[in-house]
Amino acid sequence: MSNISTTMKNKFWLSLVAVLALGTATTLFFQQKKAQASPAGYPIGATVADFKLQNVNGTTVSLSNYKDKKGVIVVFTCNHCPFAKAYEERIMGLDKKYASQNFPVVAINSNDGADYEEDSFDNMKKRASEKGYSFPYLQDATQAVAKAFGATRTPHVFILRNDGGKFTVQYIGTIDDNYQDPGSVTKRYVEDAVNNILTGKPVVVTQTKAVGCAIGWKDA
User: Does residue 132 lie in a domain region?
Assistant: First the structure.
């Protein structure tokens, strides 16, 4: 009887150890996946590396193309996300307001088109044409640019100031404080940041939480 009891205890402890080991392995796996899907990216003040992406009009656009501008409003966005759709007119408004002041918008779609058909390159071209985008709409097919920036949402804004030919990050986050109702916005983070840069003042609010859909990452 004692031998049976000892055997049962041994089986119990072996089973417990196996369960704990599996749980640890599972936790580490998902932590690794989260780290892959949530890159650290550029902090405030960092210099952004040049990138080159395909535009919906067939041209190739690089950050270095804007070396004669005062800065660039980089917006990671897409077609399918409700938040991106809610902010679409405001993104267009930002370019209309600031492109003439040498501070244009550059929109980038980093979603995996295999997971979101609406975000395919063909549908990007259709969307840009239908809405009359006045700014480039670039496809980040490898998702390398989104990972370099640390973009995680759509939309996710990065305001870059041109410092003697180098683009430095001055603001990261959301466009304003009300995605649902443009008429109820009380804090216009992007406009305030760009206005400060254009007038030679420091950006007061440098970072906010981006509100939107998670970027659809490719399987590793």
Answer: yes
